[in-house]
Amino acid sequence: MIIAVDGPAASGKGTIAKALGRHYRLPVLDTGLLYRAVGLAVVKTGGDPDHEADALAACSFNDGVLADPALRSEAIGSLASRVSIHQSVRQALVKRQRDFATQPGGAILDGRDIGTVIAPDADAKIFVTASVHVRAQRRYDDALSHGGRPDMDSLIADIQARDTRDMSRDHAPLRMADGADLLDTSNLTIDAAVQQAIALVDAQLERRRKA
Prior knowledge:
With 211 residues, the protein is of the alpha/beta class. The chain contains 9 helices and 5 strands. It has helices at 13-24, 32-44, 52-57, 74-83, 87-101, 114-118, 132-145, 152-168, 190-210, and strands spanning 2-6, 28-30, 107-111, 124-129, 181-184. The protein has a 5-stranded parallel sheet with strand order 2-3-1-4-5, sandwiched between helices. Helix 1 (13-24) crosses helix 9 (190-210). It is globular. It is an enzyme of class 2 (transferase). Pfam families: Cytidylate_kin (PF02224). It comes from Sphingobium agri. ATP binds at residues 7-15.
């Protein structure tokens, strides 16, 4: 069983994917970490994330780097969005994602092109979203909880810029996949969002069973 969870930054898709993993007892891959790893590798080697050759060269990272806490920073998130516009980078990371998705027993993947490119035949697809201001507030609260001093205007601008890059790129742009269910978490608690996600997945699985 493959479950695809897509959506923009800070929509809640990562939290929901992990909860679905616990519920269905399936391994979960945050595919955004792959692009963050590329962004981090580019920086460490003194490359330019906007230069396709530099970004592609950084795709040969070891999977062990995915556990690096530095990948979770806002700065690396922005770099991930920048390197992800390169077609060669996306193609280089496709195999890692598909290998994970097709492992025995199935898997859950969250990202921005799971249901459209990586696993278009997934058994269930959810597109998680939330308003820009709600997503910025989540980033603000998270930074505050880690001792940061975030600037709300900067967070909003960064999220809007990332949305624009993700939705307007030529290759695998962010969009809701055919057959996916929309889950807007703007006004939902985490528990409520998770319960709605489970209900949506169960309904999709049931429809496939009866088809």
